Records
---
Amino acid sequence: MHYYGPNMRKILLAIILIIGISAQGLSNTYSEIGTQYELSIDNNQYIVTGFIPFSGKTDQTIFANAMLWTVENVCPQLRDGITNVNVPKLKFSCEMILESTQGNTFYCNASFNIVNGRLIYYISDIKAVTKSFVSKNLTPFEKLNPEKKQNHKLLMSDFTKTISSTLNNMFDFIMTNKPNVSHWDEIAISKPIVGMTEDECLIAFGKPKTIFESADEVQWSYSTSFFIFLKNGKVSSFLK
């Protein structure tokens, strides 16, 4: 048995407290921290860009989770809204429609690329429809004048909050979700095979138009000529 004097006990207690505080900080999500992603200007265009590192995750895991989150939150069905996917290069782009808490609707293009454990994001072509403007047409951010017009400044601030919340939710999902993905060659060419997981189907084909569940099988319908049948979370057969 070791005996520690009063001073040593204080030092040990301080170390334990520091470790506890650090662990608590590491466990915080991006949403909890409330990270903000500010607008900047690139070639006379308003953008939001940067990168987020995900320690301990492979590039393929980051890409899989980014795609899964996008399919779930951006696509109404199939891969609608995803404009380009390059699986070998671990990059894709999509069109986002964001509703703010202030009643504004924002439209933007989002590109994502994974390199060396980092997710690089580039948000561009930002437009808005807002109740505060006389015109209800899409207004490109490049036509705004936040230095002279307060409502333009407030609109940009609202977009910053909205896109920050969206990105934080995405990054939280990437950080915590554990995807079941291994058939990368088939995903790259959108080829269904027996043994594919639900995650792999979602990345490769997107959301099914309809889902029908029977006693021992789930049927995902993508079109009148493309059906996937799953048992225990994996493709047992398909028609295409």
---
Amino acid sequence: MSWFGKIMGGGLGFVLGGPIGALVGATLGHTLFDDKVRMEYAEQGRPNGLEQRQAVFFTATFAMLGKMAKADGRVCENEIETVHNFMQHRLRLDPAAQQFAIGIFNQAKDDVTPFEDYARQFGQMFAHDPQLRMMFYELLFSVAMADGVLHPAEDHLLRATPAALGMHGDVYQTVRRQFVNNLSHHYAVLGLDEGADKVEVKKAYRRLVNEYHPDKVIAKGLPEDFVRFAEGKFREVNEAYEAIQKNTA
């Protein structure tokens, strides 16, 4: 992760600015990285635009997960386990990146910056990438639902997120339906209402397969670790299309 090297070199927090930049600086100040790790990433130079986008995506994700976990007043063990599993098994972060992600999570859950401020800066950075904003929102939803329950405090934040990200309010219901395991779920994965005709289904399928293709996602500036999440969505889109085709033939 080249952007991670720029962070460890100490030059990225200032460049990012806003609440996310401040969070990066505070996390670096409170996280005890091994000297060998710091030496490895020293003198990495100034981050380019792509690296800034990658850093914002990574930082905003774990900041907002921290806020969501603390939304009901306390962080419980299953929420901690969910985030650890997400880092280790879905993103497969190396130890240094995991340590930084945990630092962001812990710093954000206890700071006074509102959840919406982090979401708003993310939305501004990716204002011209609606699919990346949707992917980010789906990612938050998937972690919130990892224990099989959408808690009221999590639900409140997820309902507030679309406006901060600059998305339509009805996206909440569309994404929520993705976590119901029936045919409605498959239509929701394609962003459609159940019963959409075959022309709409095929059009939505082709658009999403193109947008979630790993090469396209990398080109848009998603951190390489999160490309694995996009690959999962790519498979999910194909599975949804196949399920709809099978059940509406």
---
Amino acid sequence: MPTVLDSFQLNGKVAVVTGASRGLGAAMAVALAEAGADIALVARGDLAVTQATIAATGRQCAIIAADVGAPDAAPAILQAVLKRFGRADILVNNAGIIRRANILEFSDTDWDDVLNVNLKAVFKLSQAFAADWAARKVPGKIINTASLLSFQGGIRVVSYTAAKSALMGITRAMANELAPLQINVNAIAPGYMETDNTAALRADAVRNKAILDRIPAGRWGASEDMNGAVVFLASRASDYVHGITLPVDGGWLAR
């Protein structure tokens, strides 16, 4: 008889992961492959390492070189996935950028670029994939990468905060409309993780100590700490979960 662990299996599924060349995106793509999914990697950067790691799991892996923020990127990515695999079941919207400056000096370019990649591209990809699922009358899973700044204000990252706060909002809004179509829309909010974006913070002894003192778990998060959350939200185990933003933050928000 099937067990609860069977509901976490992704055998026969195809997952699309944006921003998959390194860091959290690469780790989540590998985790989904380890759970049984074939993977379409979407990024502008070098995907060779991620592809090789996924190939070692025995799953199929396709590379789609694309800038998610480009005009008409969403339909092009969808068609590339359908051409390669004939289907898509899971969309992980992980690609993102960040720009840092004081509010009084923040440029229109840094505002527009971040909102375009971190918010508009997420919506357009979600819209394209959901429309395909609805037309085919098949279920689907959308998982957005939110942030602690979906809940907090932050400093010197106003466009990033705006995008990630809005991302939590559109995750709820899309869930409300798409749940009746058996399409789950949820988000994961990573805490302070060991990624390229936090390299400067970790190198600053004062800031590093202040952050670690605030995290109940007492350490920075590793990319692999996202694995359980993304597999759960991609699998049948989360079929009755809609519109949540799940923090994976070592307890930061609970402090």
